[in-house]
Specification:
One of its GO terms (molecular function) is nucleic acid binding. By secondary structure, the chain is of the alpha+beta class. The chain contains five helices and 13 strands.
Length: about 260
């Protein structure tokens, strides 16, 4: 949680009750994403999700439990540092030095420079890593993004939690690389809600919904290159009719 609205990359309204260590009761006015910049040969960001915006808070706080919940590792070293790392890729480190004045480990977030007196050390764990290896990681992220129907990066960890056999890479809720899906950029898909129907059927075959798809690249054994889908509005019965030509639709429907 943080009192600085400028630290957020995006926010949405929220009203969560917060109790500080001194017993003071506060309330958040927003919830969103705060990013930490990773300065490396392959720049990226570490996104902290579901961060609370609490204006009356005196300074920003990060929960170790929440970091672990996001599949991040937190270690406390003998050098009085809190080290945040990725246990899967091991390709970055966020080091938070101890502050005797505030009695806490301090991390500098983007847009939060005024409220922090210490800079976070952000480095890579292996600066000699080749560009080929980095691109292979990026390609794997893009590949699974496409395999799951261009699912959003914040949804992939949910899929990982309820599935078996998926790579641990999908467990991360943040995105390290700058690789983007050009298909998503071009299409910018938005799912529109279906309009409320004003027609009510009272018997079978009174209203039939139809759709025609094709041309299918690989023909069926019977030579079909198109599929006609019919749905009866009253009974919800579905027919799938293979067609060799589009012009066969009317005759197949009547039959």
């Amino acid at each position: 949680m943080t009192p600085n609205a400028a630290a957020f990359a995006s926010t949405k309204p929220d009203s969560t009750s917060v109790v500080t260590a001194s017993g003071k009761h506060l309330r958040s006015i927003g919830r969103g994403t705060v990013t930490l910049q990773i300065n490396s040969p392959n720049p990226g960001i570490l996104a902290l999700l579901d961060v609370l915006l609490v204006p009356e808070l005196e300074f920003s706080l990060i929960s170790v439990y929440k970091l672990n919940e996001d599949h991040l590792r937190v270690e406390f070293t003998e050098h009085l540092e809190a080290v945040i790392s990725d246990p899967f890729q091991r390709d970055f480190i966020v080091s938070a030095p101890w502050s005797a004045a505030s009695q806490a480990y301090l991390i500098l977030a983007i847009g939060d420079t005024e409220r922090s007196k210490a800079s976070a050390l952000v480095t890579t764990t292996n600066e000699e890593r080749s560009g080929t290896q980095l691109s292979q990681r990026d390609l794997q992220e893009i590949l699974w993004h496409e395999r799951t129907g261009h699912m959003g990066k914040t949804r992939l960890p949910l899929l990982y939690e309820v599935s078996r056999g998926l790579p641990e890479l999908l467990a991360k809720r943040y995105h390290l690389s700058n690789s983007q899906c050009w298909v998503c950029y071009l299409t910018n898909l938005r799912r529109l809600p279906f309009p409320n129907s004003t027609t009510k059927s009272t018997r079978a075959l009174e209203l039939v919904h139809a759709d025609l798809t094709g041309r299918i690249i690989v023909k069926s054994f019977g030579g079909a290159e198109y599929l006609a889908i019919l749905v009866d509005d009253f009974t919800r019965m579905v027919w799938v009719l293979p067609l060799a030509k589009k012009s066969d639709f009317v005759s197949a429907f009547i039959k």
